Amino acid sequence: MKVGVFTPLLSQLPFDAVLKKLRSYDINAVELGTGNYPGGAHCKLSMLENATELAEFQRKLNDHGVTISALSCHGNPLHPDKAQREAMLKVSRETILLAEKLGVKTTVDFSGCPGDSPTAIAPNWVTCPWPPEFLKILDWQWNEVVAPFWIEHAKFAADHGVRIAVEMHPGFVVYNPETMLKLRAIAGQNVGCNYDPSHMFWQQIDPIAAIRVLGDAIFHVHAKDTQIYSANLVKTGVLDTKAYTDERNRSWIFRTCGYGHGAEWWKEFVSTLRMFGYDDVLSIEHEDSLLSPEEGLTKAAQFLKEIVINEQPAAAWWV
């Protein structure tokens, strides 16, 4: 297992400077955004039609000894607004095609969320079974929109030798292990998850126990923490819609690794991932509103590098 970085936190820097900075941390794996919500500052989809640009991009990676863990295009490919849906789907498909060209096996995306009917203009995330029309909406979403789209989209990715890691995130139809496995049962084994423990924490799901539920459905992992504030949690619960920058009043906020949970927790997290077959990249994602990107990256890299080194399995004398 090794530490990598999801590079949108360095979007203000040119790609060469990003690669040089990461090498200074002894990090040689990157997750690159290609568009949609993460943006595409360091990985342009225009490379699909420009062989020279693609070759130069690959040369930079090779010169710095850096590999790509995943191409990420988190969006809402089920958005009820046609223009938004088609734009996000275009990015998702082109990301798969670029991953094929680059020899990258994994793309990261959201499941998406439809509206409540064919005439809707905004997504509708159903969070409870009553009044009864909510369950009717949920059934319509999964049967008429989610399943047909993801069966076809998963096949498109598989046909190009790429797998899709869906990030479980509230606001979309896949937000917890149960809905993740439901989608996988529909779309097939080429769909798994980008596992971000921070999203489990704030839903009050034990992220380590959830690894045992997800098993080999884990394709890629984000390294990001969450801090829960009990004094506010009793007022708002976990579905807190206050701005992320209103840290004093929120029930939880995203934190840099080690600032929500200590080394003992992260060691068990890494060990359990390895136990259930994941021995790849921990991709640092910085969304800590109390630390600058520079400070967050530095702290997370130092923290995780020691844990991953300490957790490397040694050759067993009895084998």
UniProtKB/TrEMBL annotation:
Q: Which GO terms describe its molecular function?
A: isomerase activity
Keywords carried by this UniProt record: Isomerase
Pfam families in the record, alphabetically?
AP_endonuc_2
Xylose isomerase-like TIM barrel domain location: 20-306
SUPFAM superfamilies recorded: Xylose isomerase-like
What name does this protein carry?
A: Sugar phosphate isomerase/epimerase
Source organism per entry reads Edaphobacter modestus
